[in-house]
Amino acid sequence: MCKAWYNNIIFIFCVLFLCFCRKAEEIKNEDDLNDWYSGGKQTVFINGSNAFSQSFNGMSELKLQQHEIGDKGFAAVFNSDPNQLNYGLGPIFNNVSCGSCHIGDGRGKAPNIGEPLSSLLLRISSGNDINNGPQDAQGFGGQLQQRAILGTNAECIITVNYTENAFQFADGETYSLRTPVYTLNNPYTTLPAGYLISARMATPVFGLGLLEAISETDILKNADELDVNGDGISGKANYGYNVIENKKQLGRFGWKAAMPTIIQQSAGAYNQDMGVTNFIFPIESSYGQPQYTLSNGKKDLADSTLSAVAFYIKTLAVPGRRDANNEEVKKGKNIFKQIGCAKCHIQTFITQTNMTSPETSNQRIFPYTDMLVHDMGNGLADNRNDYNATGNEWRTSPLWGIGLTNIVNGHNNFLHDGRARNFIEAIMWHSGEADATKNNFKNLSKTERDAVIKFLNSL
Ligand code: HEC
Ligand code: HEC
Questions:
Q1: Are 457 and 449 in contact (CB under 8 A)?
Q2: pLDDT value, residue 2
Q3: Residue of the nearest CA to atom 9 in ligand 2?
């Protein structure tokens, strides 16, 4: 009894102490924080085409080696010849290496009209499974593979067309929004009735170890599913399925935040995007199709390669800001906050402490995302549930490093299917929960809009 009392007092003291420390951090004026360091101590000031490909600072020699092995794995081109290295591609696949879609550890590019798909892929499904995840489409699985090794059939050939609409700001500046329309040609067998598709462009992969290190509590704090505070913005956590631990888990990765962990996303990519089987996903994506043969059934990838590649992604640093003290950039940042962008693109988090990962522990980071999904309106909708995320809902994209996209990737294709060709188009596609904010942006003067864009370019 006496002992219990004593323990309680110690416990209460600890809680108060932690609360106090936390408060002391929080009451700091956000504007006074040094947000040049987007990734906390895992920030690098390299602005060239390799800006997204830098390893964490301060890693041990052993971890650095692991990172480098993973780097090679990420770049490795797979093939279908059993006598060669990196064997196991296909029989059906989307692309030949991780790096062929996540170009320079950055994003993919939307295909032009008539161009074959390369770094953009289409998910396919028929309704939902018991966990509300997308249900595989009969004969096609969960993803359309538009390429195949010699002697086998691709699932179908995908072509894209865009319908385009022109618009104008009040001051006469014009912009144009293009909507992609995908056609599935020559399916190897009949497509199931009522199938659903979702186009996804390859995302940037740097800084993900830090996003994985944000605590669930801190993410859930910003969720307001029923919009209790009445600001028109709800924000909802998505819960995907952790296949290793066999449980539902807060999703963080992918355009709908349906994926709980980096290792599972990577294993899924090997299996689905490249046809490379591994210990997490040992069954070929072609299973049940005519091109599936038993010889495809053996595990293609060494367990150590998968671990190293996941580790590589977890330990990619974040590029620091440029021009953060420029007056126009500072003005743009203020407008970004005033008109409501920062309600979803949350500026800053502190990562949680993790004994096994001192590199990601207790860092003040500036990712400009809330890691939640939001209704973005019918224009962007894929009309397909992905766990908790409805057809209209997408994860708030992290904006850190986004100003270097053109330098690393040679284009400014934004949004989940790359339909936006610059920042203005990306913003003007915002709708649904972001309607009011988008309209605020629309009503800005040209000088103010330019300042917001200049701010985005400084991230
Ligand atoms: C055919 C193109 C393609 C290939 C090849 C590919 N990816 Fe991806 N990757 C994507 C797309 C598309 C997404 C977004 C998926 C979604 O929204 O569900 C993605 C998302 C990811 C993410 C989550 C990023 C985030 O910010 O949420 C990781 C991690 C990832 N891929 C790792 C890999 C690894 C590792 C490989 C190689 C084994 C790989 N990818 C190969 C297209 C590709
Ligand atoms: C209601 C929440 C919300 C608000 C408010 C909001 N955004 Fe977004 N933003 C999102 C979501 C969700 C996406 C991803 C949409 C998609 O890919 O279809 C996104 C995507 C973006 C992208 C493209 C990122 C990428 O990687 O492709 C940019 C740029 C962007 N937002 C800037 C802004 C700016 C500037 C404002 C203020 C004018 C703003 N956003 C307001 C939720 C929001």
A1: no
A2: 43
A3: 396
